[in-house]
Amino acid sequence: MSNTLEQTRLERLLNRPRIVAGLYLLLAVLMTWPLAADFAGSVAGGAGDLWQNYWNFWWWKTALLDLGQHPYFSPMIFHPTGAKLIFHTHSPFNMLVALPLTATLGPAAAYNFCILLALWVSGLGMYLLVRELTSEARGAFLAGIVFAFFPQTIEQILEHLNLAAVQFMPLTL
């Protein structure tokens, strides 16, 4: 009897999207710990492409807010002719959504915010999709965990923000 009661409580809890959203945010913070402890001063532990993405945040802020130009050309690379950045891995959504953070707290905070946003919205989006398709809250919650914290995604947050930002896939479906 108590097992059934506990399952009913769990189902009621997992049928409340606000609570589920909070749980996914908590999981995102825990999975990326200790980034939240030094949000504006540390970045994920990548060694190569991480710094390219870090530069991207700085460059978009510099181009848009300081120089008043589009970010797909940089006069600072290959001076004096500059460099076209049209085929560069910019991740425009992340650059724009984090622009206020980049301007106020710096590129590290912007990068960390985008990581947390991608993980959080990935989990929540998959939860909403599976719950809509199956009406099963527990399975939907588990599907959100599997999708958001899939090892490939966690690996990509270390260096490739453009590949870790998969949060729009379930929302699109």
Offer a concise description of the structure.
This protein has 173 residues and is mainly alpha-helical. It has ten helices and two strands, in the order αααββααααααα. It has helices at residues 2-14, 17-31, 49-67, 92-97, 99-105, 107-134, 137-148, 151-156, 161-164, 168-172, and strands at residues 73-74, 83-84.
Which key terms come to mind for this protein?
mainly alpha; 173 residues
Approximately how much beta-strand content do the residues carry?
Answer: under 5%
Which oligomeric form is depicted? single chain
Structural class per helix/strand content?
Answer: mainly alpha
Residue-averaged pLDDT, rounded?
A: 89
Count of individual beta strands: 2
**Helix proportion:** 55-70%
CA-to-CA gap between the ends? 38 Å
User: Uncertain segments of ≥5 residues (pLDDT<50)?
Assistant: none
SS element count, helices: 10
Q: H/E element string?
A: HHHEEHHHHHHH
**Biggest beta sheet attributes:** 2 strands, antiparallel
Q: Gyration radius, to the nearest Å?
A: 19 Å
Within the largest sheet, what's the order of strands?
Answer: 1-2
Overall morphology: elongated
Question: What does this protein structure show overall?
Answer:
- The chain has helices at 2-14, 17-31, 49-67, 92-97, 99-105, 107-134, 137-148, 151-156, 161-164, 168-172; strands at 73-74, 83-84.
- The chain has 173 residues and is mainly α.
- Strands 1-2 form a two-stranded antiparallel sheet.
- Helix content is 66%, strand content 2%.
